[in-house]
Structures are given as C-alpha cells and as structure tokens.
Design a protein that fits this description.
The complex is a heterodimer of chains A (about 220) and B (about 230). With about 220 residues, chain A is of the alpha/beta class. Chain A is about 15% helix and about 25% strand. In chain A, the strands form two sheets. In chain A, strands 4-3-2-1-5-8-10-11-12-13 form a ten-stranded mixed beta sheet, with helices on both faces. Chain A has a three-stranded mixed beta sheet with strand order 7-6-9, with no helix packed on it. In chain A, helix 2 links the parallel strand 1 and strand 2. Chain B is built from five helices and eleven strands, in the order H-E-H-E-E-H-E-H-E-E-E-E-E-H-E-E. The radius of gyration of chain B is 18 Å and the shape is globular. The chains are: A alpha/beta (about 220), B alpha/beta (about 230). The interface between A and B is large, with 50 and 57 residues.
Chain lengths: ~220, ~230
C-alpha cells in the first residue's frame, strides 16, 4: 500500500525535534502540524511574517489581519511574534529555520528541485519556495513517487524549470524515504506493504539500495 | 500641511502627482494589509502604463486586480500571481509583462531600494530561470546571483495606526511588505485605520519612522479574506 497524505505527514513529523523552528509549505507539509510528536515544543514559521502559528480561528476570533502564507486565516500560538517580509526571509536565508518541508513536481540525483512552474500550463510563481530551498540546511521534500501515469518524479535530471540547484537531501514519497548523497538516491526506508522492487521500478535516477531496507514505522 | 504634519484629507490629494508609466511599490500579502482604497483611487484615475511591484496582484475584482480590466498595468514584478483569471489571460496573451521574483528577494529589493543599497548577492534563484542574465559570484564556496534594488515613483502602504507625523504601527500579519514598501517610494502614501496626534504613539512601539512617509490618509477598509478557514467545532 502506498502512504496516504496523512501518513506521509505523520512520517515527516517524526523528523521534528524539540525546540525546532519549522516552515511548512502548502499541501501535505501543512498536514505535518497535525502529527507533531507529543511532549515537544515546536514553532511554525509562516513566511508572510509570523513565527508561532496556531490553529485555525473560530468564527468569533477570525481576523483578516492574521493569515498564513497559504492566505488562510489562522491564530497565534504561545510565544508568537510578527515581523515584516524582509525580516522573515532574513530568518530563512540566514539559516535560522531548523526544518523546511515543501512539495515538488520533480527532484533529481543532484539535489535539484522543480516545484513552481510547468511551462505553458502553470505559471503562478515561486512565492517563497526559492528562498526556502536556497536558505535552509535541512529540507524534506514531500511528493508522490510517480505521476498518476506511472512516470517517476525522482529523476536523473529535472525536466522542469528549477526552483533550486543542489539543495535537496531528503525526499519522503508515498513509497519511500530517500536521501540524496554524492549524485545518487539512497533508499532509507520503504513504506509498509511496498516492495523494494516497486520503488526501484518507479525511480528513474540511480538508486542505491542497501542489503537491508527498514520498513517505515508509525 | 505644515511642518511634519502629513495628513491629507482626500484620496485625490493622497495620489496627486501620479502619472502614466510610473512605478508603484505596493504593500500587502495576498489581500492582507493591502492599501485597498489607494488602489481604488488609481483605478478611478485611469492612470496607464504602470509598473507595479507587489508580492501578488489581488483577485479579479479586488485589490490590484482592479487595475487589470482597463489595462492600467504594463508590467508587474511579483512572486505569486495565481489567484486571478484576468491576470492569467493578460499574461498568456503577452499584454502584461510579468517578472516573477522570489518573495524574499522581492522584499530585499524593496529594503535595499529604501536603504541606498544598489544591489545585493543572494543564493536564492541560483541555477534557476531567475538567474538568467544576472551576474554570478562564488563567495566562500557558495554560489550567489546579483539582484538589483527597486525604487518606486510612489509607494502605497496600509498601516494600522499613524500619528500626524507619519510614524506607523502595523497590525499582525498585515505588516508583511508594507514597511519595506514605505521606505522605497519617492512619494510614500500611507492609508490607516486610525490617526492620532503626534506624541501619542510610544516611540518604542513604532515600526516605521515618519521620515519615510510623505502623506497619510484615514480610510475605512473592507479587509476581504481570501481563504476563510475556521476550526471544526466540537
């Protein structure tokens, strides 16, 4: 069985440590906030100018002046702060954010990522994604391993315009947890019920498979 | 107006001097903290050939999207423009020139513009379409591209409170690009929800000092919400 979006979020959440400042992108990364390990303190950074993002508001507390980077109304968590966009990206570019989780269309063996544009089809813009991938040390990309038509998204070379070059080291897909080192993908974990053969078949870029591949735990 | 008193009484006065083909830097993120009445005034004036610098371009019938139907915008420099059907049409047909710029780079371009820094190196965009035609430099083993500062003929800004001298306080995430935009306009116009007498704001709490601000106007705001997300009730 491939992982559901919720399971992918759950697995990523295991990588979050006590005291981490974390930026979560739109889509699956947003769901990670629902699975933060118990008993730890985490602050979510929203690049529009909020550190310490809280839950969605109630009808009574909804405030047009308080949104996240996905333009959704939110609240603040304990110890939150507001700041302007230059300050926000100083945090990001300056390497102060401990973990960034974002989606992508493609990732390749050299750690390149394409996530913002499909020429002729989708030209909405990169928002903060280019700054996030260029500035963060610790990034996890979440995406499905292959397209609906079975085309691998883990490539030898990205085919779409890049969001960042040589900046991705970890990818969590619906099939596997993969690291990128020295120009190769490395299989770290497989999803429960997914065979190594299936993963190999759907990985276009060179994949290093160790003798024993642990199963993901939840 | 006398001395440092920057309060004007009409939106006509607030945008006086705006001409065709000028560059306008606008604060706001999505529809949050946008100078909505100043944008409406630009729509009313029918000023054409504008270059707009803003993170987004509003939605079809609100915010900067209001300047699209009459083709008032010639070029836009923005990071994300996905919420607007007319925008997409004009971009695809080539009527509108779009320069997609990473969000952090856009904020820093405005900051640099206001701070007298002509250009800066950033790793953001290296090896991507954003780097095309830009100077590259390796510093300490890492690659950077040279990005130039942006200045505007006008900056249009939304703040929460101002005093008559133009000292500004923003509210929550409606701050976003507004403080940088305020520094980068030859003429910076700010609309606010409340104006107090000079001396009434605590100097320690001021986000933008009045030196950057030329005109202040009191407005009333719709504050439209783009994605109204509410907690599921138990």
């Amino acid at each position: 069985m491939t992982l559901s979006r919720e399971q992918m979020a759950q697995r990523v959440a295991q990588e979050i440590q006590d005291g981490f400042y974390v930026n979560l992108g739109i889509g699956i990364p947003t769901l990670v906030a629902n699975y933060l390990p118990a008993g730890i303190e985490v602050m979510l950074q929203s690049e529009n100018g909020l550190l310490g993002m809280g839950q969605f508001p109630t009808e009574e507390t909804v405030d047009a002046d308080l949104i996240n980077a996905g333009k959704q109304t939110v609240t603040v968590a304990k110890g939150a702060s507001f700041f302007d966009s230059a300050e926000s990206f100083a945090m990001i570019r300056g390497g102060h954010v401990d973990l960034t989780v974002l989606g992508a269309f493609e990732v390749d063996v050299n750690g390149n990522i394409a996530s913002y544009m499909i020429p002729g089809k989708l030209i909405k813009g990169m928002g903060g994604a280019m700054d996030l991938v260029a500035g963060a040390e610790n990034i996890i990309v979440t995406m499905t391993h292959a397209s609906k038509h079975g085309q691998s998204k883990l490539l030898a070379n990205c085919s779409l315009p890049l969001t960042g070059k040589g900046c991705i080291k970890k990818v969590l897909t619906d099939l596997a947890f993969i690291e990128i080192k020295a120009g190769k993908f490395h299989l770290i974990e497989h999803a429960p019920g997914v065979t190594v053969e299936e993963i190999v078949k759907l990985t276009e870029g060179e994949l290093v498979v160790p003798a024993k591949v642990p199963e993901m735990k939840f | 107006m006398a001395g440092f008193d920057k309060v004007v009484s009409s939106y006509e006065e607030a945008m006086a001097g705006l001409e065709d083909n000028m560059t306008i830097i606008a604060g706001g993120f999505g529809l949050c903290g946008i100078p909505e009445n100043l944008i409406s005034e630009i729509e009313k004036r029918g000023t054409k050939g504008l270059t707009i610098v803003s993170n987004n371009c509003g939605v079809d019938n609100f915010g900067l999207g209001l300047l699209l139907p009459n083709r008032q915008i010639k070029k836009i420099i923005a990071s994300y423009v996905g919420e607007n059907a007319e925008f997409e049409r004009q971009m695809m047909s080539g009527e509108l020139d779009v320069e997609l710029t990473p969000q952090g780079t856009l904020a820093e371009k405005m900051r640099a513009g206001g701070a007298g820094i002509p250009a800066f190196f950033t790793a953001t965009g290296y090896g991507t379409p954003v780097a095309e035609g830009k100077e590259e430099r390796e510093i300490g083993g890492k690659h950077y591209i040279l990005e130039h500062a942006i200045k505007g003929d006008f900056a249009i800004v939304k703040a929460w409170k101002a005093d008559r001298y133009g000292n500004l306080i923003f509210r929550k995430t409606a701050r976003n690009f507004n403080p940088m935009a305020a520094t980068a306009g030859k003429i910076t116009v700010v609309e606010v929800e409340e104006i107090v007498e000079s001396g009434e704001l605590d100097p320690d709490q001021i986000h933008t000092p009045g030196i950057y601000v030329n005109r202040i106007i009191l407005g009333t705001f719709e504050k439209r919400i783009e994605q109204r997300t509410i907690q599921a009730t138990q």
